[in-house]
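Late entry, written up from scratch paper. The run itself happened at the end of the previous shift, but nothing got recorded in the book at the time, so transcribing now.
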Amino acid sequence: MSPHGTFVSGPLATRDAALFTDLYEITMAASYLREGMNGLATFSLFARKLPKERSFLVAAGLEDVLNFLRDFRVSRAAIRYLASLGRFDADFLDFLGGLRFTGEVRAVPEGTVVFRDEPLLEVTAPIIEAQIVETAVLNLVHFQTLLTSKAVRSVLAARGRPVVEFGLRRTHGIDAGMKAARCAFIAGAPMSSNVLAGLYYGIPPTGTMAHSYVSAFPHEIDAFRAFARAFPAHTILLIDTYDTVAAAHKAVEVAKEMEARGHRLAGVRLDSGDIVALSKEVRRVLDGAGLDYVKIFVSGGLDEDSMERFLAEGAPIDAFGVGTRMDVSADAPYLDMAYKLVEYQGRHVLKTSAGKATWTGRKQVYRFLGRDGRFVADRIALKDERFPSGEAELLLRTVMEGGRLLAPHPPLTAVRDFCAAQIAALPEEVRRLRDAAPYPVTYSDRLVLLQRSLEAEVEATEVAPARRRAGRAAPETGAKRPPTRGAPMAKFGKSLQPPRSPKAGVPPEESVSPPRVRRRQKTVHVAVRKGTTLLQTGHGPRVVRGAKSPKVKKR
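Output as recorded:
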């Protein structure tokens, strides 16, 4: 049994894990307790925007989050350390000694495709509990979502060829190496060079040989023969230590010797040079010797761009080994992901900060499906909304109540299969690696109305009085505002055009701007396009179950 306050992820156990947080989470918790504030709060975790060339993300890390929350304890050692800082009183430290996570988590399953602003999970708990776990929850989801989203791109670029995760030696530490193997497997890489990932996650390990192995022998062919004798059923020869084409001829010689002993050479690996030209020449050498069954495996600083280029130029590659660039997400090493308070004690809250405004309220994401099962569009709505017609699936599901898991975690193979189904259901123009089309994500009318009402309230109660006290004039109405998304806007006041009923399976047209504060505004305006369906009218898409998430057994 793990020591009190220990978080276990794969083979790694983090003692005193409650301190895996930023100091301000603890100082806020202490202040909440002092002020008698520990009502129910909801925090929403989402990506504000996507990196360049990313048209979607793949959610991951939920299993670790749920395990962290389930086992959350503040150890005696942690309390002693906090006491040594001289910042916290005895009442607060005593409170921490009995602190447990008792809340609810609603989340999308691991492997779910998500887009900008869509909650990956929402935590509802007494505010001290929900606040103090922020850093860990965000860390666990952010890193694994980042890596899974990157790995999916390599899998797509391979066009059905196997992708092996190869980057352990250059990942950012042991935990990162383990997470990289797990994330790549979820994304569709069937094997990893990480042997420990094989033990703990069940990911099949694979590998060939290093250049040091080849150069340790007097002659290159001696190394090839020794490896073939040791592993006759799994021989892949690394042929670029000296000269790739010359080594290919030596591989032919070894392959013929193996055939005489009743075995077959599995493949050769290229790790450097002009991969397109060399792979074509090596294929010619192998086929000319009657070894069309020998596979060509390519590695060496690959990413989705080089893989896509190699195949576009006709390189006869059978499998890829992808490492560093995938495992550190080299082109986009972080996501603009946030964990923000959206409701406290039944009161809707938001941020109106420039560039960091948030949508209020507990939410649900509705995904509309076409007749072929492909994704058509998403709608972000308030949690209690219901749509009376059409076809959609609800993305957020309750996975924890009262601090307890509602079901065992699904096996990693089920998560992988679910992820593959999600990627396959994306429209082709959204799935492509370059110049992908934006996926339609809209916001429900009720959410927009609530958002605009709160923005006006913040302006009236927080911004305008302070400005008046400071003797500052309000910004002119012509002042520059944040850019809007979608089609041109149409304002409305007391009257509305009659809504149109949507076609089955297709969400009503609507377009709204990101959250923003409206200055000098006495009435609340909502930006919509003509024909937008209001929830109050009773029109809108009906919600039915869509694609299934990985099956789990209920306790």
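The radius of gyration is 28 Å.
(Scratch paper discarded after transcription.)
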